[in-house]
Structure formats: C-alpha cells, structure tokens
Amino acid sequence: MAQNILGVVGWSGSGKTTLLEFLVKELCTLGHSVNVVKHSHHDIIIEPPQKDSARFRTAGAAEVLLVSPYRYVMTRELRGESEPALMDILPRLSASDLIFVEGYKWETIPKIEVYRPALGKPAIFPDDPHIVAVASDVAAPENLRPGLAWLDLNKTTDVLKWILAELHEKNFSTSLK
Q1: CA-CA-CA-CA torsion for 156, 124, 167, 149, nearest 10 degrees?
Q2: What sign has the CA pseudo-torsion 46, 50, 51, 57?
Q3: How many alpha carbons lie under 13 Å from residue 29 in its C-beta half-sphere?
Q4: pTM value?
Q5: At what angle do helices 16-29 and 156-168 cross, to 10 degrees?
Q6: Helix ranges, 60-133 (H)
Q7: Which residues contact 177 (CB under 8 A, 6 or more apart)?
Q8: H or E stretch at 36
Q9: Could you give the CA distance from residue 101 to residue 116 in angstroms, rounded to a whole number?
Q10: What is the torsional sign of CA 81, 87, 93, 94?
C-alpha cells in the first residue's frame, strides 16, 4: 500500500510545530484527510498516574485502549523492547491523503526542513538528499542543489501551495509494508 508521507524536520525552536499546525488546519479545511506522527525523545504521559489507564499500564498491561465519546488512544508499553521503526507503525494509521511525520530526521522519506539560521544550528539539507524543500526565514543560498525547493517560512500559504502541488504530482508517495 502506498501513502503520501512528508517528514518535517528541523532543530528545536525552528517552528516545525507552528508550521505543521497551520498546514494541518488548512489542508483539513480544504477537505483533505491528514494524519500526523510526532516523534518524541521524552516519556509520553497520556493520563496522570492515578487514573485507571495509567494504573493498568503500571500493573503490567502491554496495551491499554482508552476510549471516550470524543477520542480514543492506544498505549503500548515497550518494557525494554526497541522503539518501533517508523515504517512498522505507519500501517497502524487510517488511510489519509497525507501523513506528516515530525522528527525522524534519519528516515529515508521525503522531508521539508524548517531552517532558521538565527538559532545558530547547522542546516540539515546539505547532508540529507531526502530533504526536498526548505522553509526558511532567509533567502536561498547561491549553491542550492538542483531540484531543492526553497520556501519562505514567513509566507505559510506559499508552503501550503507547494505541498498541494507536490501532492497532485504524487511526489510524496511512499510504499508501506
């Protein structure tokens, strides 16, 4: 099965979440279905420790499915197992027009980098051939590799238009297991 997948990478504080929030809202307003995978290096707390689902996890349950009339969430305790690979967890998502993946810099998926030189961190795009676009608050460098789109981070509607055009061309299509 193929899915449209676009990674969003950049250093902490670059504006990845702000850009993604805008893009998800606009794409959904236009009638597109969007899923998001967010990678975190931190522990994930779904409910406070005293709540039932947390108590079940602590008691030893491998998975807990918490369901309400508003949403549901599945937690899976790894208990020493390796973190699952992105391509192993993506098939768990419902079908959608686009899956945004925030983080996972190392994955070989099409990615857009959110790059702000003022953060004092190096750009990722020169060393990652899977970065297909850069959204930045500075002008493109003269030695930009051919085919790499350079987008104005301050004009988020231009970033949205670029994504819509790439979706139309099926440039984010990735095979899943």
Answers
A1: 70
A2: positive
A3: 7
A4: 0.91
A5: 60
A6: 86-89
A7: 87, 88, 91
A8: strand 34-38
A9: 19
A10: negative
Please give the chain's pLDDT, 177 residues, in tens.
679 999 999 999 999 999 999 999 999 999 999 999 998 877 777 788 888 988 998 899 998 998 999 999 888 989 989 999 999 999 999 999 999 999 899 999 999 999 999 999 999 999 999 999 999 999 999 989 999 999 999 999 999 999 999 998 888 988 876
Name the one residue in this structure whose structure tokens are 């099965």: 1
State in Å, rounded, how far the first CA of the chain is from the last one: 7
* Residues pairing with 64 in the sheet: 75
**Residue that has been written with the tokens 């987008």 in this structure:** 151
Give 147's contacts (C-beta < 8 A, 6+ positions apart): 132
Which residue blocks in the chain are alpha helix, DSSP H? Answer: 16-29, 52-59, 86-89, 156-168
